Amino acid sequence: MLEPLRQGLPPIDPGAVSTSASCALPARYEAVRGARKFTSSTLDGWGLADRFDDVALVVSELVTNALRHAVPDGPPDSPAHPPVRLHLMRWASRLVCAVRDPSRESPEARGGEEDFSAESGRGLFLVESFSDSWGWHPLAGTLQGKVVWALFRVGPEE
């Protein structure tokens, strides 16, 4: 059974971030395609195009989960729908994909590896399978929502 890690990012020196990129995504399912395009162009620019398949699969799952489980019901362009936000951060040997959404609810794995016939519910199992680690944390202060992140090793250890 997958247990989400309710914690901040793993201990990585924030001063060692070599580069980062982020984009706001509308509260519509077409946003998954936009997130994949954004990830592709960002990874190309960082010389990590060879990691696109695994990273894009995880980004797709995290964005889909945010849209499906964390965005309030209602018209997609209403003020009640703050955009989901995708952040990509690169350290010398690590890449972090983080998706911010407006819910403070813990991500939950449903189905998982035991239920491959299910139509949905395997997203977090895929995140766990294709990334090196993942977790989530609520946003601090007056900010509403949470961040769900996945970490990939992309180079020699620091």
UniProtKB/TrEMBL annotation:
SUPFAM superfamilies: ATPase domain of HSP90 chaperone/DNA topoisomerase II/histidine kinase. Transmembrane segments: none annotated. GO terms for molecular function: ATP binding; protein serine/threonine kinase activity. Keywords: ATP-binding, Kinase, Nucleotide-binding, Serine/threonine-protein kinase, Transferase. The keyword Ribonucleoprotein does not apply. This is ATP-binding protein. InterPro entries: Anti-sigma-factor_SerPK, HATPase_C_sf, HATPase_dom. CDD domains: HATPase_RsbW-like. Residues 25-136 form the Histidine kinase/HSP90-like ATPase domain. The keyword Membrane does not apply.
